[in-house]
C-alpha cells in the first residue's frame, strides 16, 4: 500500500474515531518496496492541499526516511524551477507518496494500540468481533 | 461509449462477477447529466495554471465501498478526464473480502494502463468493513453497489477471518468461496441491513461541503422509503434517482440514487 493512502486512514475502532491519537497510524516492523510511478508535477500540486503535513512528517521519521521540511510547501514550489517540475522537493514527494509502498508489516493505532497487518501490500482493517 | 475494464483475471468463485448492476453504475456515472454534475462540483483545471484545480481543497477522493472485481472503480479511475473534466482525482477501494481487494488492484492497474493520458491516481484497495478505517470527512465521492438481495439473515462472520485468507496448500474450500460470495449479495431484511449501516456512516464520512454518494438499490429495497430516510438526515440533504434499468411489472428493477447536500459547494 502506498504511503499516500495512509493520509486517509485511521483506526477502524468506533471508540477511536474522536481521538487525535488514532491518526496517523504508526508503522511497525514494515518492509517497504519502491514501485515506480510516472512523475506528474501537476498531480502533486493537487494532492498537496489534501495532505496532513505534520502526520506525513511523523510517518517519515518513524520509517527512517529522509526528513521533509517541517512546514508544508506552497503549491507554487512544486511547479517552480527551470523545467516547471519543482525540482528536488517534487521528486522527493513523488517518491515518498506515490512510489514508496508498505509490502509487509503492521500499522498501529496510537490510541488503543490495536495492530493492523499488511500482507503482500494489502492492509487488513477488519476487527475481531469483540472490538467492533 | 467508454471501454469497460477487463476482469478476465478475476476468479468469480469468490469475487462478485460484474453484472447488470455494475454496468448500470458505469452507464450512469458516464452519462452526460452526471458528468456535468461532477464537472461543476469538482472543478476544471485552469489552463493558466497548467492543470492546477481551481478548488483549494485539491484533488477529490473517490471511494468505492465493496469493489468486488473492481470494475466500477477501474472505470472511474481510467476515465477520470471524461467523468470529472480533469484527471486529478484519487481513487480508493474497500472490500470485506481480501480476494476482492487483490482483484481490484489488478483491474484498476490494467484499465489505467490502457488510458495513459486520462487516468487518475489509484491509491489502494484496503480490506475493511464498509468505510471503517477511512478518516471522517475525507470522501468526496462515495460509490456503493451493496449486497441488496433480501435474505433471511446476513452471512455469519464468525469464520470470516479464516475464510478471508488464501490457503496455498489446500486451495479454497467450497464453504469458503460460498461465504465470500454471499457477502457480495446477501442483504438481510429487505436487502437493506448493510446499506442501512452505510447510510448511517454517510454524514460523518463525506466531505461536509462537496461530498456526494452514489447508491444502487433494487426494487425490494423500497427506494422511496430510502429516499425519505435520506431527506430526514437533516436540513439540506438531497437525493435524486439518476439511473435506472430493467422495468419489472412497472417497477424499476434497479436504480441509482445520488445523495448530496444543498448549498454546497460554490460553483467555482
From TrEMBL, chain A:
Classification via SUPFAM superfamilies: Trm112p-like (SSF158997)
Superkingdom as given in the UniProt entry: Eukaryota
Gene3D superfamilies for this protein: 2.20.25.10
InterPro entries: Trm112, Trm112-like
Family statement: Belongs to the TRM112 family.
Protein name per its UniProtKB record: Trm112p-domain-containing protein
Taxonomic source organism: Coniosporium apollinis
TrEMBL record, chain B:
InterPro entries with a match to the protein in the record: DNA_methylase_N6_adenine_CS (IPR002052), Euk-Arch_PrmC-MTase (IPR052190), SAM-dependent_MTases_sf (IPR029063)
GO molecular function, one term: peptide chain release factor N(5)-glutamine methyltransferase activity
Listed SUPFAM superfamilies: S-adenosyl-L-methionine-dependent methyltransferases
Keyword check for S-adenosyl-L-methionine: yes
This enzyme's EC code(s): 2.1.1.297
Gene Ontology biological-process entries: methylation
Residue intervals passing through the bilayer: none
Keywords: Methyltransferase, S-adenosyl-L-methionine, Transferase
Family (UniProt): Belongs to the eukaryotic/archaeal PrmC-related family.
Protein name: S-adenosylmethionine-dependent methyltransferase
